[in-house]
Amino acid sequence: MDSLDAIKTVIAVVETGSFTAASQRLNISKALVSKYIGEIEKQFDVRLFNRTTRKISLTESGSNYYHHALQVLERYEVMMDHVVGEQSSPKGSLRVSAPVTFGEIWLAEHIPEFCQLYPDIQFDLVLNNHAVDMLQAGIDVRIKVGNVEDSTLIARHISDVSRVICASPAYLNTQGTPKNLADLVAHTCIVDTNFNDGKTWELYNSQGQKEVVEVFSDLSCNSPQAIVNMVKAGGGIGYVTMHAAIGAIRSGELVEVLPDYRSQNLGLYVMYPHRKYVSRKVRCFVEFMQQKFKNCNNQG
């Protein structure tokens, strides 16, 4: 039995909550997961997990083993980084979670460059628009657009992302162009459910004063790119992140509505768990993000 693999297996089972999920996270068979757990229990003459047909739960011995295993794994990574030296390429798997549209439009095109810079890293990009339990999902770094609420994570601010109100030229030709924020009540608007403001849109006018409008909407979506496509099809006026809309605005497929108004900026963050030691692969990715996305609103 490889002791380090066994330690990683226990950690994976605890954090994912099942042998099956742990096998998927580690890319090994469920049988091998069971074998590692059984060999550790036999070696220490303890039971790590209470098993039923429906779930598993940690025993007191299992909890103690898990917390010590985290420290051992962290110290191993410290040792490897120090032994190999800062001049060498970081190694291992890097699992990154990102919002779907940001990942597809902005991040994906930069990943090959990151992999060329660090060829010994196995990169796994996971795209979703919901909150992620980083430990359970085995996520090393989470990218988020918006507010950071989880104080158990370290959040590095990378840049700011603005939102833009936009519509298709055809829609504006038939329905008219809003002259001020209040005019939006006469239009069909499409709501991005990724944000808490819903139908209440807050923007700042050219004098820097905040204005609020309650828009009419019977259409909402949790994908900025899907909203852009709906707006391009003449479905109404959208309020989406700049990275989702800027390509269509530059091509003329969309027109920015109320360009004198500006949105409150959203933060672009990279997040990772609080630890005494941050692995080189995570540090390298954070630095890469800072280099590539320090001016988000100018990209597209």
UniProtKB/TrEMBL annotation:
CDD domains registered for this protein in UniProt: PBP2_CrgA_like
Gene3D superfamilies in alphabetical order: 3.40.190.290, Winged helix-like DNA-binding domain superfamily/Winged helix DNA-binding domain
SUPFAM superfamilies documented for this protein: Periplasmic binding protein-like II, Winged helix' DNA-binding domain
Domain HTH lysR-type stretches: 1-59
Alphabetized UniProt keyword annotations: DNA-binding, Transcription, Transcription regulation
InterPro entries: LysR-type_TF_proteobact-type, LysR_HTH_N, LysR_subst-bd, WH-like_DNA-bd_sf, WH_DNA-bd_sf
UniProt-listed Pfam families: HTH_1 (PF00126), LysR_substrate (PF03466)
PANTHER family: HTH-TYPE TRANSCRIPTIONAL ACTIVATOR TTDR-RELATED, HTH-TYPE TRANSCRIPTIONAL REGULATOR
The family this protein is said to belong to: Belongs to the LysR transcriptional regulatory family.
Record-given protein name: LysR family transcriptional regulator
